[in-house]
Amino acid sequence: MDVLVIGANGHTGRLLVEQLAAHPEHTPHAMVREVSQADELKKLGAASTILADLEEDTAAALKGMDAVMFAAGSGSSTGPEKTVSVDQQGAKKTIDSARVQEVQHYVMLSGIGVENPQGALKHYAEAKLNADRHLQSSGVPYTIVRPGKLTFEKGTGKIELAEKLSNPEKRDISREDVARTMIAALDIENARGQTVELLAGDKDIHEAWKAL
């Protein structure tokens, strides 16, 4: 598959590009907002870089793509307007384009707790939930992955995956394993149409997907 990574210059996006490049059946293409980001992503293994901004027209970025991985975000320091513009409306535009382009699989990086938005990050959760629901109703084959607290620790390849997980506020998941879990969804038919929560666990990633 030719896979477009949206948010490729972010922490998880870079891992997606690097891991996809090492996968024998997938070719990563990095969507970037600034030309200066291209060289580093090519070093990580991106077959191409595509200049596009989620707050502008992104339709051309999806042309020729078999799959999309959305790992973009406005960042924790931005206000509600920017979050809605990027995390919600930006995501929705790429989902609509994916439908037009007949993309085979759209994998969305979301987050645990978006269905119960509250506190300081309420606006972020609401934006992510709206994007998730748009994807679910779009007709595009999808997988939505909702990880818990993200860490920069080395991945173990062992996870817990379910529609709902217990005590997510007391547990976490490495970004490396989040990327692995998202990529594995491309190869496992059972992952399609799934919206799942993700935390560190004791089950092999592929086996966790197959067990759903």
Provide a compact summary of the structure:
The chain is an alpha/beta fold and 212 residues long. It has helices at residues 11-21, 38-44, 80-100, 122-136, 175-187, 205-210, and strands at 2-6, 27-32, 48-51, 67-70, 105-109, 142-147, 149-151, 158-162, 172-174, 194-200, 203-204. It is built from six helices and eleven strands.
List the helices and strands and how they pair.
Elements: E1 2-6, H1 11-21, E2 27-32, H2 38-44, E3 48-51, E4 67-70, H3 80-100, E5 105-109, H4 122-136, E6 142-147, E7 149-151, E8 158-162, E9 172-174, H5 175-187, E10 194-200, E11 203-204, H6 205-210
Parallel strand pairs: 1-2, 1-4, 2-3, 4-5, 5-6, 6-10, 7-9
Antiparallel strand pairs: 8-10, 8-11
Helix pairs in contact: 1-5, 3-4
| Count of helical stretches | 6
Helical fraction equals 25-40%
Strand count, sense and barrel status of the largest sheet are: 9 strands, mixed
Task: Give me the secondary-structure category.
Answer: alpha/beta
Query: What's the number of extended β-strand segments?
Result: 11
Q: Please report which band the strand proportion falls in: under 5%, 5-15%, 15-25%, 25-35%, 35-45% or over 45%.
A: 15-25%
- Low-pLDDT stretches are none
The ordered string of helix (H) and strand (E) elements is EHEHEEHEHEEEEHEEH
End-to-end CA span: 24 Å
Backbone CA Rg: 16 Å
Task: Let me know the average pLDDT.
Answer: 94
| Gross morphology | globular
Strand order of the largest sheet: 3-2-1-4-5-6-10-8-11
